[in-house]
Design brief:
Layout (H helix, E strand, L loop, with lengths): L17 E5 L16 H15 L3 E5 L5 H8 L4 E2 L6 H9 L5 E4 L6 H4 L1 E3 L5 E3 L2 H12 L4 E4 L5 H13 L5 E5 L8 H7 L5 E4 L4 H9 L10 H4 L2 H10 L3 E3 L3 E5 L8 E5 L9 E5 L1 H12 L3 E5 L12 H15 L3 E5 L1 H9 L8 E3 L9
Parallel strand pairs: 1-2, 1-7, 2-4, 3-4, 8-9, 8-14, 9-10, 14-15, 15-16
Antiparallel strand pairs: 5-6, 11-12, 11-13
Helix pairs in contact: 1-2, 11-12
Family: Belongs to the phosphoglycerate kinase family.
InterPro entries: Phosphoglycerate_kinase, Phosphoglycerate_kinase_CS, Phosphoglycerate_kinase_N, Phosphoglycerate_kinase_sf
Catalytic activity: (2R)-3-phosphoglycerate + ATP = (2R)-3-phospho-glyceroyl phosphate + ADP
């Protein structure tokens, strides 16, 4: 799907309209349900305010724990609907005065939203087609205009961000981190049709290393389902002349814990039994920096290590520093994915990048 044939919110007359705004407010919460990083909410506020300022009724697809933070960011009260579809919700929306902000219950509570759900045993259960259609009609009844603001800076960054992805200045580099290959198969597949270079890092790098080189990875993450797709992805990369860059050394841990004992490992000896790779090492950092320096457009989705633990944050911080330096030199740098946006927020550099986009693991470019 091309992004350039979609209208920006600023292209639509919103006066008196009921506006459904799709946002990604999957924010991290502590044990007391307090938000620990409001970046995704902050990123959506300009779109919501734009709708309000232009006389619309703003309807946000959302979940309840963010009500307080959203009220704080907007500076006005927010109504919360206990469901996302149905007669009661329709009545609430239709009776709202212009400029009202109404939050709907989390859409993912409905199997019809994603087409499936899981039963008590954790087995995937498909939603009934008729119910899916009924659910969609229920959502459609709530709004006159639909705005997808899952890209946090959509209406402000529309033309420049879309242009950067559809007609990128080359060399075009994508950096993909995260845990599972299977979570990002579609994204990797799409990017292999667009980029010149692809850095695979984070936990999923170990699936590539074991599958391609039979490297010993100890107790590092290994995605068995994802491993089956690695040869096909590498074949496509070769066919499209895409250079795939993988880490070559690692910071290891004896357990997944912030206070773990640490060690070092490289490709040649592998990671010993009982140890796991939680970050990339110095040589990988140099390799990633060199690759970033050689690129003109950089899309980064997913950290290079377990940055939440200070002992294993160096690779991610070094990659971020290289990305910031690239952006400051005039290159296009787009950071996407909740974890990566959290990294940018943690080190206070969101405003030093071209775009910070807060989507989750279902990122899809193309």
């Amino acid at each position: 799907m091309s992004l350039s044939n979609k209208l920006s919110i600023s292209d639509v007359d919103l006066k008196g309209k009921r506006v459904l705004i799709r946002v990604d407010f999957n924010v991290p919460l502590d044990e007391n349900k307090n938000i620990t990083n409001p970046q995704r909410i902050v990123g959506a506020v300009p779109t919501i305010k734009y709708a309000i300022d232009n006389g619309a009724k703003a309807v946000i697809l959302i979940l309840k724990p963010v009500v307080g933070e959203l009220e704080k960011q907007l500076g006005k009260s927010v109504q919360f609907a206990s469901d996302s579809v149905g007669p009661e919700v329709e009545e609430l929306v239709n009776k709202a005065s212009d400029g009202a902000v109404i939050l709907l219950e989390n859409l993912r509570f409905h199997a019809e939203e994603e087409g499936s759900s899981k039963d008590k045993e954790g087995n995937k259960v498909k939603a009934d087609k008729a119910k899916v259609e009924e659910f969609r009609k229920g959502l459609t009844a709530l709004g006159d205009v639909y705005v997808n603001d899952a890209f946090g800076t959509a209406h402000r960054a529309h033309s420049s961000m879309v242009g950067a992805l559809e007609n990128p200045k080359r060399p075009f580099l994508a950096i993909l981190g995260g845990a599972k290959v299977s979570d990002k198969i579609q994204l990797i597949d799409n990017l292999l049709e667009k980029v010149n270079t692809l850095i695979i890092c984070g936990g999923m790098a170990f699936t590539f290393k074991k599958s391609l080189d039979n490297m010993a990875i100890g107790t590092s993450l290994f995605d068995k389902a994802g491993a089956e797709t690695v040869p096909k992805l590498m074949e496509k990369a070769k066919k499209n002349n895409v250079k795939v860059v993988l880490p070559v050394d690692y910071i290891t841990a004896d357990k997944f814990d912030k206070d773990a004992e640490t060690g070092k490992a490289s490709d040649s000896e592998g990671i010993p039994d009982g140890w796991m790779g939680l970050d990339c090492g110095e040589e990988s950092i140099k390799l990633f920096k060199q690759t970033i320096d050689e690129s003109e457009t950089i899309l980064w989705n997913g950290p290079t290590g377990v940055f939440e633990f200070d002992k294993f944050a160096k690779g991610t911080k070094a990659t971020l520093d290289a990305a910031v330096a690239a952006a400051q030199s005039g290159k296009i740098v787009i950071i996407g994915g909740g974890d990566t946006a959290t990294v940018a927020a943690k080190y206070g550099v969101e405003d030093k990048l071209s775009h910070s986009v807060t989507r989750d693991k279902d990122d899809n470019i193309g």
